[in-house]
Amino acid sequence: MPENTPAAGFQFGLANLKPAHPTEKITVTFPDGAQREFPKSTTGLDIAKGISPSLAKRTVAMALDGVLSDLADPIEQDARIEFVNRDDPRALELIRHDAAHVLAEAVQALWPGTQVTIGPVIDSGFYYDFFRNEPFTPEDFAAIEKKMREIIAKDKPFTKEIWTREQTKQVFRDKGELFKVELVDAIPENQTIRIYKQGDWFDLCRGPHMTSTGKIGSAFKLMKVAGAYWRGDSNNPMLTRIYGTAFAKQEDLDAYLHQIEEAEKRDHRKLGRELDLFHFQEEGPGVVFWHPKGWSVFQGLIAYMRRRLAADYQEVNAPQILDKSLWETSGHWDWYRENMFAAQSAGDEAEDKRWFAIKPMNCPGHVLIFKHGLKSYRELPIRLAEFGIVHRYEPSGAMHGLMRVRGFTQDDAHVFCTEAQLADECLKINDLILSTYADFGFEGELTVKLSTRPEKRVGTDAAWDHAESVMTKVLEQIKAEGHNRIRTEISPGEGAFYGPKFEYVLRDAIGREWQCGTTQVDFNLPERFGAFYIDEHSNKVAPVMVHRAICGSLERFTGILIEHYAGHFPLWLAPVQAVVTTITSDGDDYAREVFEACRKAGLRVEIDLRNEKINYKVREHSLAKIPALLVVGKKEAETRSVSIRRLGKEGSSVVPLDEALAALIDEATAPDVKRMKGIA
Prior knowledge:
The chain is of the alpha+beta class. It is built from 21 helices and 33 strands. Helix content is 34%, strand content 26%.
């Protein structure tokens, strides 16, 4: 048969095969910018395996267009892909989420019949709420952690299934998981029901998860238990909430546990009692009873802020109680009433029975002060500052020492300026905030966040465009001038309804972050109150209003300072800067001389002439965090010297009295005063 003659019978080849429909393709963009086409519905795992088996093995999830997803999810459209391993900061949330699921499985394995409810990730770790007749206690943690390690060691894959609503409810109903049935009912109709399995155990969950339980690792720990009402409603059953934390590495967990230990030592509530600074009591929930020493620190903080503002700000004071009609005009009565306190005359026969509001913030009062009298563009910017006491309702469970109170003092200020002046004012405020934090010893990394327009907002798009453009440029300048100390972030949609804002987050001595300072642009309040200035064309123009706080709540900032310094304040801020004490009664007369010399020099000083051993006195004053102890005896009296012991330092040094006074006076001078005097 000739070579090219077709053979008899049925013939086919690959070249003859054609798909009925062309395979749909998607384009995937990799982190280096490279692009490849894949069939639609290709999974992230397939792509990772195609690159290398080792990549697939170490990848725990993927990010599609920046959104974390299960690695096994099909990719249905063009997307930018990133492979996430355990060491990626984004994986920490997944590790904790997976650990919460394993916690729930462990609890149900150990105590069958326990109902699981919800188990979200939180800033410090995760928790899971359980319903059981007998509440869990920390004594149960060892058994639970052991069971969790067993589950993790099995390394079961996390798999996702889509169930129907009725199927889901029936399955959980059959299991006796009535809280889960209620959760299913709460899921909007347009959302799919996702079930995640790890071996035989499963849970209702939105995801995502890592590829298997083994990826959680061993760096986890259960921390505490607490009671929690189902859905936060006291009419509902009480649940037991088990808190835990987890990290990618053991050293990260160890560092966190050390931080917790340090935080407990530094707890401002504990130190407040030990150092006799302040107290709270039931008759005044959420308001501070300042003791003399605590009040000294608080007033030192205010005095410092007053000096810093003196050159550029005018200090004002707006009334504490104002008719509710004013708060209706400002919008607070409608939008903020649940956080406000109202007052009325207590007398039954009082002529005026109007309702008044105790001010929750200073802003409306400052607008009214600005409005009083005609203002020209030549007078702008006008900067009004107030150390105003405000009151805001906080639920009793939310209050936390000085950190969360109902009555507090704001180092509040409002700048009224033109649009052209906005950038300079933001930069000026930034310099003030950063230098203030540095003066109080916060010299580590700071974060400045720009929050942009939310969906619900007031003001024109043009005004928002201008403000956000200005603040974005300011943010870039802040970062450029920060010399790697300033980290910047943008939080899209997190601005206030009335304008974009900066938030300043500082880091304390043990690495905790505290959001304190704010700069907020306001398009709303001046217009609501009809505030205006006359521009160069004789037109009435609403000013740009900038809300500014440096410390925020001065009570809270004092609490932060107590914990930052562990009660050992720098000498310029310490309530008692020095104590003069004696070795024997032979030194009493000279001790009185030293005490008077310190007092006349402006030092906050006390004298201790008790007939006690010197070691006892040293220990007692050390526990009271006294920065300097001036010990005198017969020998010191003869040489007109003092023996100085400094808190936190070993031993003592004997120096002439004049020299000791000069050194203490220098150290007791606030950093801003030193700069003004040119002695910094």
